[in-house]
């Protein structure tokens, strides 16, 4: 074989493979052969018709959970990114109120977790207000350990419980201050 001809053969093989892949794509999505439908890229049941401005839109396209480090109520960069998206969405949809539900699953007694969960909810509320969401549409409530995502002892699991959930409401409920 002449010098450099190995590279030429590799180039021809690569071109042939790419042409074959292109041919498979030309007729539509690859289906795995035969009559197998392409379900990988099909809309998930119940989410094909998510209406802009709906609760589903908020949950799927914005995100309603903000997470915290253990024992803390400070907003990190990731939390602020989520809250920035929430603020944009809430400003665009003034028909919605938001109940900010703080949760904690941290070492300490029940009173300490209640205080921490309330501080987390209030930190989220303060940030959203600073981003232009009217305070009259928001209220914060701490739930301490009352509503865990999962009951567990591993750090990876308990971290899921250190959160604030932004729950959309059409009107304020009994937990909202007067």
TrEMBL record:
Keyword Thylakoid: no
Signal peptide (residue range): 1-19
Every OmpA-like domain range: 55-172
GO CC terms of this entry: cell outer membrane
UniProt xrefs under CDD domains: OmpA_C-like (cd07185)
Matches recorded under InterPro entries: Bact_OuterMem_StrucFunc, OMP_bac, OmpA-like, OmpA-like_sf
Organism domain of life: Bacteria
Protein name as catalogued: Peptidoglycan-associated lipoprotein
Protein's organism: Breoghania corrubedonensis
């Amino acid at each position: 074989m002449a010098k450099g001809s190995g590279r030429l053969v590799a180039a021809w093989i690569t071109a042939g493979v790419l042409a074959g892949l292109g041919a498979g794509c030309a007729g539509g999505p690859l289906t795995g052969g035969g009559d197998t439908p392409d379900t990988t890229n099909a809309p998930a049941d119940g989410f094909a018709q998510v209406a802009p401005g709906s609760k589903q839109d908020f949950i799927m396209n914005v995100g309603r959970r903000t997470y915290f480090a253990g024992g803390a109520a400070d907003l990190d960069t990731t939390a602020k990114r989520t809250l920035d998206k929430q603020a944009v969405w809430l400003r665009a949809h003034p028909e919605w109120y938001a109940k900010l539900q703080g949760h904690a699953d941290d070492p300490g007694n029940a009173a300490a977790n209640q205080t921490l969960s309330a501080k987390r909810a209030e930190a989220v509320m303060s940030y959203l207000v600073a981003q232009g969401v009217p305070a009259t549409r928001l209220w914060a409530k701490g739930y301490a350990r009352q509503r865990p995502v999962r009951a567990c002892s591993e750090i990876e699991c308990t971290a899921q419980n250190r959160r604030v959930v932004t729950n959309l409401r059409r009107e304020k409920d009994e937990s909202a201050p007067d």
